[in-house]
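Every protein is a chain of amino acids, and every chain bends into a shape of its own. The protein below has been through that process, and both of its lines are reproduced in full.
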Amino acid sequence: MKYILSFLLGVSMTSSLIAKDQTGNIGQVMMVGMKGTSVNDNSDIVQQMKKYKIGGIVLFPKTEQYPNQNIVDEKQLKKLTNDLHYYAQKYGIPKLLIAVNQEGGVINGLKPEKFPLIKQCADAGLNKSQKDIGDSGDAALASKQSKCIGEALKSYGIDINFAPVAAIEINPDSDVIAKWAGVMVMMLSRLQNF
């Protein structure tokens, strides 16, 4: 309950800060989500970009469970990111950052079957889960996968990947931790220098 309350207080405080902001600078430190797979002059996100100079947008895959999300396939994503950058430039946003969650393994905003460059990474064995990379202790593999996925995301207009840099498996009984974590404490020093 305290986390929900903290979130609600944060949203409330952020909303009142934005409302009081006369310079347009508050929006530059905000990263928000959006609905839909395309934008135009009348889209809610475009209006927010115009009014608040939003600094970042995080995109999620459109699925049956989440039909209002943003990512469908390569052609659509490239158009969406190009259009978002167009509106950022039009409304004087210095650098709009676009983010996804492309961790590898099963946690992927861009699925290999719809994104050829991500498929190339997967075919080369460079789409492993963060847990598998951590368990392997292979710093070269971590570096190669990061580079392959990073270059693919850049070609699609993505600036930030919310993949974990280092996670420690504290509770092996937790499904969430077991899926997303896996870098052992003793491996941190070896992998941090790649």
Notes: The chain has one domain: 24-191. The two ends are 39 Å apart (CA to CA).
